[in-house]
Design brief:
The structure holds 2 protein chains of 2 kinds. By secondary structure, chain A is α/β, with parallel strands linked by helices. Chain A folds into 2 domains: about 5-165, Thiamin diphosphate (ThDP)-binding fold, Pyr/PP domains (Rossmann fold); about 185-309, Rossmann fold (3-Layer(aba) Sandwich), CATH 3.40.50.920. Chain A has helices at about 5-20, 30-35, 40-45, 55-65, 80, 85-95, 125-130, 140-150, 200-210, 230-240, 255-265, 285-290, 295-309; strands at about 5, 25-30, 50, 70-75, 100-105, 135, 160, 165, 185, 190-195, 215-220, 225, 245-250, 270-275. In chain A, the strands form 3 sheets. Chain A has a 7-stranded mixed beta sheet, with helices on both faces. Chain A has a 5-stranded mixed beta sheet with strand order 9-11-10-13-14, with helices on both faces. Chain A starts with a strand and ends with a helix. In chain B, helix 1 (about 5-20) packs antiparallel against helix 2 (about 25-45), helix 1 packs antiparallel against helix 10 and helix 2 (about 25-45) packs across helix 9. In chain B, strand 2, helix 6 and strand 3 (about 165-170) form a beta-alpha-beta unit. Chain B is built from 10 helices and 7 strands. In chain B, the strands form 2 sheets. In chain B, strands 1-2-3-7-6 form a 5-stranded parallel beta sheet, with helices on both faces. Chain B has a two-stranded antiparallel sheet with strand order 4-5. By secondary structure, chain B is α/β, with parallel strands linked by helices. The chains are: A alpha/beta, B alpha/beta.
Chain lengths: ~300, ~270
């Protein structure tokens, strides 16, 4: 399948939707290049609100636009929208329940070579803790397009994050999804790997490696990080012999802890959380960092083997 | 009825709320009351606001800690039953110490300072884009001016030429820790806003002869800033110009004195 970045899939879809729906606004933070939203700005200058390098104001302005009946997509690097503008997200979006979609691009360690100022390995944790927020992490371009269309047709306050680089496709065009429900990528009865965002393709490849070893791994794409599909988690905990979670996020407060919460409360099972450790992250590109911190198909397969021993 | 008298009556309502519930920010509520009275009893078409007409004027209380001042005005104007004021800050109430959503007349919940102006800018952009003649008013505190987001939003208001936006500053020169010029110097605010591309009007915030024309003033393709010089705790010598009264709760004796002062001043103007 073609390798396409989620951010480009998002902007292409949003442009298409904006042509049909004049209530769609895009707000930017000097980020039209990094988001790849230049065409929207050219075609809909009145509905493209450039706020400059001022993320707090951008989110606040979005809430005001939404209060006048618009569906507003605030776009920019996840590291700034999920940190610098967090109080505006908390108050103006979540607490006020405004129709604002915070679209964080180049998330996780996409900007790894730029250093720790540009990582967003805390955003699932912070956004999950806000009442009223929907938290999404698409795994490829097909799912990104589906979720963008979903967001154009709902007024739910949302945080959606995606990476910078091209990602290998997980799904064939036309695949169907349901927000709030995990998408089963591979069926399996020995172990379950629950992943989200651009870690889903890693989980899928780990399942292929495990298959060669005679281990059948179930892979769940938990693209709706919140609300979590508890039913699928409980089912996996009961039907398979252990769960591995995989995310481009701190091991604190993200998908792993969300899964562990459900498992420990309803169906105790062995869980191993794979993500970034609670330490200053090394400098390097995504591939190097994934390799260093064990977010690779090989390491996931090895962890699965150990868990099953 | 005379607007000044109305404002003293609302100040008495505020006093009752703060004293009976032992909560609130009485000093700033007293200083901004003439501004609220000007807007709700004169400048804005409140029937449209009550009807939630899409072309209604919008008011945002960015200095959300003075919610009790706004609640008394909204109740008196019939946005909700006056009896609801009795629930102020009580368990399960809609009327928190900062304006919450879900109250008729409240456009957006506020309370964290430096948020209201950004939301106002978003509303003004949208209204302009769809050709609405509605106007957006946002009331900020002077201490609030230290928030960086206020200036981010001001730059945006000027960039988008929002002549349908009026930013009002309740310039009482006091904040919770003391004088604004000691905590974080703000002067010269008029020059600052002018340099940011706004049309600036300074007026006496307790004089309706100055206040109402200022609120109606505007300049094409520029947002207007009304710097309303006010007195914190206005209406009683117990509170006036005293930083402690940012959120003091009156003792029984102080309550009686404030009530007597406000009643007397209300009678003098009626």
């Amino acid at each position: 399948m073609a390798k396409v970045s989620c951010r480009k899939a998002f902007t292409a879809k949003l442009l298409e939707l904006a042509r049909e729906n004049e209530k769609i606004y895009a707000v930017a933070t000097d980020s039209r290049g990094s988001v790849t939203i230049g065409k929207f700005a050219e075609e809909f200058p009145k509905r493209f609100i450039e706020c400059g390098i001022a993320e707090q104001n951008a989110v606040g302005v979005a809430s005001g636009l939404a209060k006048d009946g618009n569906n507003v997509f605030v776009t920019g690097p996840a590291c700034f929208l999920a940190a610098r503008a967090f109080e505006q997200v908390k108050v103006d979006v979540a607490y006020n329940k405004t129709n604002v979609k915070i679209i964080g691009v180049s998330s996780g360690v996409s900007y790894g070579p730029l250093g720790g100022t540009h990582t967003s390995l805390h955003d699932y944790a912070s956004m999950r803790a806000l009442a009223n927020m929907l938290v999404l992490a698409p795994s490829d371009n097909v799912q990104t397009e589906y979720l963008t269309e979903y967001l154009a047709n709902t007024d739910h306050p949302t945080y959606m994050r995606m990476g910078r680089g091209d990602v290998e496709g997980v799904y064939e065009p036309g695949e169907s999804f349901e927000v709030g429900k995990a998408k089963q990528v591979c069926d399996g009865m020995d172990i379950t790997i629950i992943a989200c965002g651009e870690m889903v393709i890693v989980a899928k490849k780990a399942a292929e490696l495990l298959k060669e070893q005679g281990i059948s791994a179930r892979v769940l794409d938990m693209f709706t990080v919140k609300p979590l599909d508890e039913e699928s988690v409980i089912k996996a905990a009961k039907e398979t012999k252990g769960i591995i979670t995989l995310e481009e996020h701190s091991i604190y407060g993200g998908l792993g802890e969300a899964v562990t919460h459900v498992v420990s409360e309803y169906a105790p099972a062995k869980v191993k959380i794979l993500g970034f450790p609670d330490e200053e992250i090394k400098i390097g590109n995504s591939k190097e960092l994934f390799g260093h911190y064990g977010l690779t198909p090989e390491n996931v397969a090895a962890v699965a083997g150990k868990l099953l021993q | 009825m005379d607007l000044k008298k109305i404002a003293f009556d609302r100040r008495l309502d505020v006093l009752e709320m703060v004293y009976s519930k032992k909560s609130g920010h009485i000093g700033g509520s007293m200083s901004c009351m003439d501004i609220l009275t000007s807007l709700y009893y004169s400048v804005m078409d409140i029937q449209k606001i009550k009807d939630h007409d899409e072309d209604r004027d919008r008011f945002i209380l960015s200095k959300g800690h003075c919610s009790e001042a706004l609640y008394t005005v909204l109740a008196d104007c019939g946005f909700f039953d006056k009896a609801e004021l009795e629930t102020y800050t009580r368990f399960g109430t809609k009327l928190a110490e900062h304006p919450t959503k879900g109250i008729n007349g409240i456009e957006i919940a506020t309370g964290a300072l430096g948020h209201g102006l950004s939301a106002a800018v978003g509303m003004a952009i949208s209204l302009k884009n769809r050709g609405s003649a509605a106007h957006v008013y946002v009331l900020m505190g002077d201490g609030e001016q230290a928030e960086g987001s206020v200036w981010e939003a001001t730059m945006a208001a000027a960039k988008f030429g929002l002549d349908n936006l009026t930013m009002i500053i309740d310039r009482n020169r006091l904040q919770i820790s003391g004088g604004t010029e000691d905590v974080m110097p703000l002067d010269n605010l008029a020059e600052k806003y002018g340099a940011f591309g706004c049309h600036v009007v300074t007026c006496n915030g307790h004089d309706y002869g100055e206040l109402i024309p200022a609120l109606k003033e505007g300049k094409s393709k520029q947002p207007t800033v009304v710097i309303a010089d006010t007195i914190k705790g206005y209406g009683s010598s117990v509170m006036e110009n005293k930083a402690d009264w940012h959120h003091n709760i009156p003792t029984a004796e102080e309550y009686e004195q404030i009530k007597a002062d406000l009643t007397k001043k209300g009678m003098e103007v009626s």
